[in-house]
Design goal:
Blueprint (H helix, E strand, L loop, with lengths): L52 E7 L2 H17 L2 E7 L1 H14 L6 E5 L3 H4 L7 H7 L8 H6 L2 E2 L2 E2 L2 E7 L1 E5 L11 H11 L7 E5 L6 H11 L16 H12 L13 H9 L3 E5 L6 H4 L12 E5 L10 E7 L7 H11 L2 H11 L18 H6 L11 H17 L5 H18 L12
Helix pairs in contact: 1-11, 1-12, 7-8, 7-14, 14-15
């Protein structure tokens, strides 16, 4: 049994998982803003970007909150005005892609979920010239995170700014030994604490369409299954896929009957209300901020984080985001200044302290305050992301639909496997990978 992780987080004040060609842009000509703190910024007159306006797009919640918190300092340092626009995850992709492909330039900076990198890359400004000009050190990022986030086919299209491996939050009073190493052991643990008559279920899971696919993925991958091999031959029709689906069906017995319609917010709230022993969702989207706040939580001092069952591979799901500059932006130099400040070591630390956002910087995890999260850090070295090619959006959408149909008894196991195989095959036929691109997720 692996050790469980006690999570010691300070109570936070506020809350909330291109047509550019192959050549790089000419090196920017406008001088970068100084790195001086806001209280040392020069007088407004003569600031390098005075009179300009920057519009940045983020996912609603803590990432957008962090962006807004940085606005005063950035405006003081540059003279520019900043507008922060945000959308929920389920609509952010559509809003960002529409602006990118139309070259309207509505946004100067966008926060990109790493699974969209390959799809967005043709419409993003390559950042290699900026990185070289300013000596921006790309070696500071955790290698596995950078391999899955921001770099695409040898080009830097975004700078990592947030990451977390999929971990589970659990009740230390109900499961003092933490999360078991196998899915069978995990189901037995859930059964032992499931007590719906007294308002406590074994588990709450983010199973709404758009999030259920990721749940299926981390179970599948940990069991040794995959969507396809390195040459994009679909391999979803497998014993591991059947086992993953059967596992998800089995844990319905230990969750609220309404759970299939719950997303992150509902799942987290149920856990904070003491109605579940385990919460399978992104804890940094609410639990780490509220868990020890008596005004918002009924489980103060009775919860912790642990890695998911290792089963065969120990691979879990990675959530990673990178800040990028659309090729259609008319304010690329100013946008780069925002990217540098937002991803700086100083800001990454502030964003953790105030919003519990995990940084992809290696040095961030070497701090004493992160010592109790060593297993989370280790998870970042093996966490995986699904396809980062254009076909991934269609594939993930269909996986969500098919797995949801299976869990709601609309189709049986074999029909679910058949539909998954057909859906992944169709996604690759509709959006074939570029020649030479291998599927590293296999």
């Amino acid at each position: 049994m692996k050790k469980w992780i006690a999570l010691l987080l300070a109570l936070v004040m506020v809350l909330s998982v291109t047509a550019c060609g192959a050549s790089e842009p000419a090196a920017p000509t406008k001088a970068p803003a100084a790195d001086a703190p806001a209280d040392e910024a020069p007088a407004a007159e003569g600031l390098p970007y005075e009179g300009e306006t920057l519009t940045v797009l983020y996912m609603s919640g803590v990432y957008a909150d962090a962006a807004r918190a940085m606005v005063p300092e950035f405006e003081a340092a540059t003279g520019a005005k900043v507008e922060v626009v945000d959308y929920p995850y389920l609509t952010l992709h559509e809003k960002a892609l529409l602006d990118l492909t139309s070259y309207t330039g509505s946004y100067d900076v966008i926060d990109v979920a790493s699974q969209w990198d390959g799809e967005f890359a043709p419409f993003l400004e390559p950042l290699n010239a900026y990185v070289e000009r300013d000596g921006y050190d790309m070696s500071v990022w955790i290698d596995n995170v950078l391999a899955n986030c921001g770099e695409w086919q040898g080009t830097i299209v975004g700078i990592p700014n947030a990451c977390t491996p999929q971990v589970f939050a659990y009740r230390t009073d109900l499961l003092p030994d933490g999360i078991p190493d196998t899915w069978e052991g995990y189901r037995e643990a859930l059964a032992s604490v499931n007590d719906p008559e007294n308002g406590v279920y074994g588990v709450t899971v983010s199973e709404v369409s758009g999030q259920l696919g990721g749940v299926f993925d981390y179970v599948l991958w940990s069991m040794g299954g995959n969507w396809a091999d390195e040459d994009w031959n679909v391999t979803i029709d497998s014993a591991e896929t059947r086992a993953a689906l059967e596992h998800l069906y089995a844990i319905k017995e230990y969750s609220d009957p309404a759970n299939l319609a719950w997303g992150v917010d509902e799942s987290i709230q149920a856990f904070l209300d003491g109605k579940a022993a385990v919460c399978e969702t992104w804890p940094t989207l609410g639990i780490t901020q509220k868990g020890d706040d008596p005004a918002q939580s009924k489980i103060v001092g009775k919860w912790a984080l642990d890695v998911i069952p290792h089963e065969e591979t120990g691979i879990t799901l990675l959530s990673a985001w990178d800040v990028a500059i659309p090729a259609g932006s008319q304010n690329k130099d100013l946008a780069w200044e925002w990217v540098k400040m937002y991803t700086s070591y100083e800001k990454q630390n502030e964003f953790y302290d105030e919003f519990a956002i995990f940084s992809p910087r290696k040095e961030f995890w070497e701090q004493e305050k992160m010592a109790n999260l060593s297993a989370v850090r280790d998870g970042l070295d093996t966490a995986n992301m699904w396809w980062r090619i254009p076909a991934s959006v269609e594939a993930d959408s269909m996986i969500n639909t098919i797995v949801g149909s299976y869990l709601s008894d609309q189709i049986d196991l074999e029909e679910a496997v058949k539909q998954l195989n057909d859906a992944l095959t169709a996604a690759l036929e509709n959006s074939p990978p570029e020649e030479g691109i291998k599927n590293y997720n296999h």
